[in-house]
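Hey L., structure's done. Input below.
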Amino acid sequence: MSTLIQLPEGSVCWPAAALSSAAQDIQHARTHTDRAQGRERRLGGSTRWERSYADACAWVEWDWVEMAEGTVVQADPLNVRSNVLLLDECGRPLLSSRRRAALATLVYLLPWQGPVLDALRNTAGTRRGASVEQRLAA
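Output:
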């Protein structure tokens, strides 16, 4: 008896073995910055990377935090959101734990810190400009 896998619409299947080459084709799509919260007042946000096909778009997205100026890290390396179904060498879906580890490895291979730091610089410039305007208005 065969069991069909129901994929959410827009899902993309990738062989897990192809992840390292996929890292070369994936492009930064967007980075979202959240305001500093909590006692430590750290900035954080999420970043999304995509690989487009003729009829679909594969994406991976994760949260990050700024540890110090110029240093960003993943908030939770095993919490990578994605519409990618990873397949083993026999074409079967990877177990959830193996999928999380494989996606964490993909993120490790991506040069994601640069675009995130660029977004932080843009945010810092905006915040600095706002504080100057507030001082001039006072």
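Confidence is low (pLDDT under 50) at residues 128-138. The CA atoms of residues 30 and 88 lie 29 Å apart.

-- N.
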